[in-house]
Write a structure and sequence with these properties.
This protein is mainly alpha-helical and 77 residues long. The chain contains three helices and two strands. It has two domains: 1-38, no CATH class; 39-77. Strands 1-2 form a two-stranded antiparallel ribbon.
Length: 77
């Protein structure tokens, strides 16, 4: 369902003096159609090994950054 908005125009009495805007439901409908009919899950699964390695790197980097802060808070009271 699209909503119509009137525009100010010199040719106000002509047809097509309005324009249609997208509504939220059309975006949701298009997104649902993309999820249902595309192979996005297969693409993610094909890159699973690379994604797992990146997650491990992120966890290690966060640990290296946060462990000294946690130890400083525990032992420097």
């Amino acid at each position: 369902m699209a909503t119509e908005a009137v525009t100010v125009s010199r040719n106000i009495r002509e047809r097509n003096t309005g324009y249609k805007t997208f509504t939220r439901s059309s975006y949701l409908r298009r997104f649902r159609c993309f999820i249902e009919h595309s192979n996005w899950d297969e693409v993610i699964l094909s890159h699973e090994e690379w994604i797992d390695k990146m997650c491990i790197v992120i966890i290690i980097a966060a640990s290296v950054y946060l462990i000294p802060i946690a130890l400083a808070m525990l032992f420097l009271r």
